[in-house]
Amino acid sequence: MRTLRVALVLTVALALAAAASAAPGNAKGKGKGKKGHGVHGVVAKVDNDGNHGTITVKVKAKKGGTAAEKTFKVTKGTTFQRVSGKKGEKQTGSAVFADVKAGERVAIVARGDVAEKVTITGKAKKKAKAAKANK
């Protein structure tokens, strides 16, 4: 009788483990869609042809490397958003492609070289040395 009970408990435990690994939220590899890659930087150039065009972003290099420029295609499916306000009091609002200007800081979520979401975070900060040289 005890052997039957142990076998039943093990069978239930195995069934629960199999169900948990097959759950959609835990899928690995092929079942999962690729997430977009995020890029932060300063807009270097904008080519706007209505709903389509390109945004070239100057991306800061990690640990002393040289800055690189990345160009992203803008399509009808690209969404735009503007973030304003100080830390802790940030407000988001809608924006359009025409709102993106050279010299603004942006965060772009892209799939390959196509921008899916563009968040305008504000004007680029001037470096301290440049500010002192102008005085």
Structure commentary:
The structure is a single chain. This protein has a seven-stranded mixed sheet, with no helix packed on it. The protein has two helices and seven strands. By secondary structure, the chain is of the alpha+beta class. It has a domain at 36-124: OB fold (Dihydrolipoamide Acetyltransferase, E2P) (Beta Barrel). The longest helix is centred in the N-terminal third of the chain and has 20 residues, at 2-21.
Descriptive key words:
135 residues, OB fold (Dihydrolipoamide Acetyltransferase, E2P), seven-stranded mixed beta sheet, elongated, 2 helices, alpha+beta, 7 strands
Write the layout of secondary structure elements.
Layout: H1 2-21, E1 37-49, E2 52-59, E3 68-74, E4 79-84, E5 91-94, E6 104-111, E7 114-123, H2 128-133
Parallel strand pairs: 4-7
Antiparallel strand pairs: 1-2, 1-6, 2-3, 4-5, 6-7
